[in-house]
């Protein structure tokens, strides 16, 4: 508890580690909207320890970005310790990711897919807690049984963990089958441990946060998806989506980050607007935007369109736009994204499978920043250019012509000719070309050698 109070400052409003989403500009924005503690995105310990460029980008922080916890993933105690040593001077604690349920964690054998290997997890936590100057924390998911979840948490505490964040879902509860988190597991773990316990899951508004603190007794509440759709969640307000978007863009100019991160944040901030049919063109432009200027144009376009409604100069009706009739708040305000329940999702899939007109093989259409249709190959090339604008990507390789005709020459030809011209030259001048594998001279010499050899054999037979 001393760590939670004295080092972290008793935070109750916490932003979760989010891959490609909890980067420095977003963390600062969240803090300005009431967040009291932030985590870095999940960082791969092996890459972090050996790649200086990855490490520099991952540890991007500033004075306003405190308190901060760095989260690492991996399955080798020595490598995780090596990475943690490089990060401990830039944060208040090192968090071990034991809760990621995604496929990449399964392939890499880390996150929630380590939760059945208790001796290995215990060794990781113990190794870090005994060799770092900062505390070690863990983020975990629950098991099916409450008793096993409590036992697992106790093992982490005994190994040296200073704080635990418990996500009230199992590792199989993800994507369209996410469902609701079970806070009773958080309550049980909190009662069994002597270290701070943070609750994660089901936080979509300030009322959820207060109810969670009251029901679980946790010291704090962590949110991920709720923060992405409404970064002002902790203040209990729903600002017009262009306000946090513009503030975020100002921070991005000060602390640059990949364009893909910006695109992802804007899609979530404007999710409910972009779902309206008359905004299809704007949605496509946002998806194809490849510069700060183009992102700002999209924000300005949406602001100009919906600001009159927000200020009451125009009257908005919930039935005006298809897709907005189920929203309690108007679509331009930041608000939670509510998923279908797993049962409703399965019913929807079954109905789609039974629909004869449902096209399962429809292909996604790609467009550039101007809305012109382009191929998937061209879109991937544009994204490569956006990621590395300093590198020159050429569409076509230079083609060199044969010196005798219009055909392209062979790249390894000894005589700078195409294969046909090279073959003719070798035949007429008794030459070899290793590049084209044309061995006229060699084969003629071999033929002459064996012909002479046969002649000698015949002579010996006639004149023994």
UniProtKB/TrEMBL annotation:
Q: What are the EC numbers?
A: 1.3.1.88
Q: What GO MF terms are annotated?
A: flavin adenine dinucleotide binding; tRNA dihydrouridine synthase activity
Task: List, for all copies, the residue spans of the domain called DUS-like FMN-binding.
Answer: 15-238
Which terms are listed as keywords in the entry? Flavoprotein, FMN, NAD, NADP, Oxidoreductase, tRNA processing
Q: Which cofactor does it need?
A: FMN
The record's InterPro entries line, in alphabetical order, gives: Aldolase_TIM, DUS-like_FMN-bd, tRNA_hU_synthase_CS
The identity of this protein, by name, is tRNA-dihydrouridine(16/17) synthase [NAD(P)(+)]
Q: What is the lineage of its organism?
A: Eukaryota, Metazoa, Ecdysozoa, Arthropoda, Hexapoda
């Amino acid at each position: 508890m001393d760590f939670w109070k004295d080092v972290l400052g008793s935070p109750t409003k916490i932003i979760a580690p989010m891959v490609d989403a909890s980067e420095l500009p977003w963390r600062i924005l969240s803090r300005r909207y009431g967040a009291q503690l932030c985590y870095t995105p999940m960082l791969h310990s092996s890459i972090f320890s050996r790649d200086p460029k990855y490490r520099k980008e991952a540890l991007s922080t500033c004075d306003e970005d405190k308190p901060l916890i760095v989260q690492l993933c991996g399955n080798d105690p020595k490598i995780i310790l090596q990475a943690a040593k490089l990060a401990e001077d830039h944060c208040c604690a090192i968090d071990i990711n034991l809760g990621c349920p995604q496929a990449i964690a399964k392939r890499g054998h880390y996150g929630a897919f380590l939760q059945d290997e208790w001796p290995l997890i215990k060794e990781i936590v113990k190794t870090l807690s005994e060799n770092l100057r900062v505390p070690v924390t863990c983020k975990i998911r629950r098991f099916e049984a409450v008793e096993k979840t409590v036992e697992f948490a106790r093992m982490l505490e005994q190994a040296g963990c200073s704080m635990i964040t418990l996500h009230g879902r199992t590792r199989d509860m993800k994507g369209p089958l996410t469902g609701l988190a079970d806070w009773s597991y958080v309550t049980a773990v909190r009662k069994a441990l002597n270290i701070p316990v943070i609750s994660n899951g089901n936080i979509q508004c300030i009322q959820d946060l207060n109810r969670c603190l009251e029901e679980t007794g946790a010291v704090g509440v962590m949110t991920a998806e709720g923060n992405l759709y409404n970064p002002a969640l902790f203040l209990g307000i729903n600002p017009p989506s262009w306000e946090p978007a513009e503030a975020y863009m100002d921070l991005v100019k000060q602390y640059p980050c990949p364009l893909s991160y910006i695109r992802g944040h804007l899609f979530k901030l404007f999710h409910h607007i972009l779902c309206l049919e008359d905004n299809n063109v704007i949605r496509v432009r946002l998806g194809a935007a490849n510069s700060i200027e183009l992102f700002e144009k999209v924000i300005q376009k949406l602001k100009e369109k919906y600001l009159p409604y927000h200020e009451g100069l125009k009257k908005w009706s919930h039935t005006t736009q298809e897709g907005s009739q189920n929203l309690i708040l108007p679509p331009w305000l930041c608000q939670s994204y509510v998923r279908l329940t797993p049962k409703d999702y399965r019913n929807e899939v079954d109905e789609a499978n039974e629909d004869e007109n449902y096209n399962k093989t429809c292909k996604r259409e790609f467009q550039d920043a101007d809305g012109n249709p382009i191929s998937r190959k061209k879109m991937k090339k544009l994204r490569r250019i956006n990621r590395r604008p300093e590198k020159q990507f050429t569409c076509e390789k230079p083609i060199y012509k044969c010196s005798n005709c219009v055909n392209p020459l062979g790249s390894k030809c000894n005589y700078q000719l195409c294969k046909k011209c090279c073959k003719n030259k070798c035949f007429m001048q008794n030459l070899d070309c290793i590049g084209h594998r044309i061995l006229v001279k060699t084969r003629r010499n071999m033929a002459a050698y064996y012909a002479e050899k046969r002649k000698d054999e015949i002579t010996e037979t006639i004149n023994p």
